[in-house]
Amino acid sequence: QNPHFIGQVQAFASSLAANSDIEWITGRSVTDACHTQDQPFSFFGVDLGVNRRLVLTHYTIRNRTSKTHVVRHWCFEGSEDGQVWVALDARVYRSSDK
Questions:
Q1: Cα separation of 92 and 89, whole Å?
Q2: pTM of the model as a whole
Q3: Measured between alpha carbons, how far is 64 from 51 in angstroms, rounded to an integer?
Q4: Burial class of residue 5 (count of CB atoms within 10 Å of its CB; 0-12, 13-18, 19+)
Q5: What number is the average pLDDT over the span 48-58?
Q6: Is beta strand 10-13 parallel, antiparallel or unpaired with respect to 44-47?
Q7: How far apart are CA 85 and CA 80, in angstroms?
Q8: Pairwise CA distance, residues 54 & 47, whole Å
């Protein structure tokens, strides 16, 4: 089951576009509809809850099947307190990367 839907984690976002549902970012179903509004520095996040830690070895970012809505820049961050954030990985699109 989706861990956000059953209350094990709390998903959040800077904004949500029309017809998006925050629980979709923690689900296993592929959807073309979950995205933020088109604003700089938009983000999605997942709060694992008190006394939970994550040992990250891999992660996946899914894009919809579209040439106009593709994630090109991102910064993957982690925080223990929700105040101080540490960059774990970052990617910047360069047009020379093909």
A1: 10
A2: 0.78
A3: 33
A4: middle
A5: 88
A6: antiparallel
A7: 8
A8: 11
